[in-house]
Specification:
GO molecular function: endonuclease activity; hydrolase activity; metal ion binding; RNA binding; sequence-specific DNA binding; single-stranded DNA binding
InterPro entries: Translin, Translin_C, Translin_fam, Translin_N, Translin_sf
Strand content: under 5%
Keywords: Cytoplasm, DNA-binding, Endonuclease, Hydrolase, Magnesium, Metal-binding, Nuclease, Nucleus, RNA-binding
Number of helices: 9
CATH class of the largest domain: Mainly Alpha
Main location: cytoplasm
Low-confidence stretches: none
CATH superfamily of the largest domain: Translin, domain 1
Order of helices and strands: HHHHHHHHH
Number of domains: 2
CATH architecture of the largest domain: Up-down Bundle
Mean pLDDT: 93
Structural class: mainly alpha
Subunit structure: Ring-shaped heterooctamer of six TSN and two TSNAX subunits, DNA/RNA binding occurs inside the ring.
Helix content: over 70%
Distance between the termini: 88 Å
Largest sheet: none
């Protein structure tokens, strides 16, 4: 049976551990808050392309958004410096959602510039993260996949607004990319509940895009450009 002095020492060590844990989490939270602020700025900037008056400014807006990613890399490096070695997933919940959002923003930016789907490695490069979990602070694969699914919803919105702006080719390009994305996800056996639910939303996104493209086709607009 432990003596009273032993119990005191034992619980004192527990308190020391809890204080250390709390301090680490607080430092991580502060660093993540800075990253979240930057993510909101990029989101606001990229979503401005949905405004009809900004339709011709997409390249300019993309270049401006791209400039934020050097800052994002620095902010991730700051977070990584506060995470103890080999404890990535112990604290992962702190930056999980902002990483999903930034993966979405990187994918959306890539689509706007190249009309294609970004790969896992290029997303990690844009964020300044590793792809190999053995290397420590890395881009979690499920966070990347969630970002791609969020992008599909944003592309659906873009398809609608492109028609309003008179750009009848954009929905066709969007349909191609989202169809490819859907085909890729069909190959996965999703165990993660949130990923599976988000993938269900992708099916509805694709259906809506197909309806937009079909409507353009029967109206004879699918071969017209915004300048015609």
């Amino acid at each position: 049976m432990a003596q009273e002095s032993d119990l005191t020492l034992m619980f004192a060590s527990f308190q020391k551990y809890l204080d250390s844990e709390r301090e680490i989490r607080e430092k991580i939270r502060e660093a993540v808050n800075d990253l979240e602020d930057t993510a909101r700025e990029v989101l606001t900037l990229l979503q401005s392309i949905h405004q009809v008056e900004n339709h011709q400014r997409v390249p300019e807006i993309c270049e401006k958004a791209k400039g934020y990613f050097s800052k994002i890399k620095e902010q991730y490096a700051n977070i990584a410096s506060k995470v103890p070695d080999n404890q990535f997933y112990r604290f992962h919940d702190h930056w999980r959602f902002v990483t999903q959002r930034l993966s979405f923003l990187a994918a959306f930016l890539f689509y706007l510039q190249h009309h294609g789907l970004i790969c896992y490695e290029d997303t990690a490069e844009m964020l300044g993260l590793k792809v190999d979990r053995k290397c420590g602070f890395h881009l979690d694969l499920e966070d990347f996949l969630m970002g791609l699914l969020q992008m599909a919803t944003e592309l659906t919105r873009l398809a609608v607004n492109s028609v309003t702006a008179g750009n009848y080719q954009e929905p066709l390009l969007i349909k191609k990319s989202v169809t490819q994305l859907d085909a890729g996800f069909r190959l996965l056996n999703l165990k993660n509940d949130s990923l599976r639910k988000r993938y269900d939303a992708l099916k509805y996104d694709l259906k809506k895009i197909e309806e937009i493209v079909y409507d353009l086709s029967i109206r004879g607009l699918s071969n017209k450009t915004e300048d015609q």
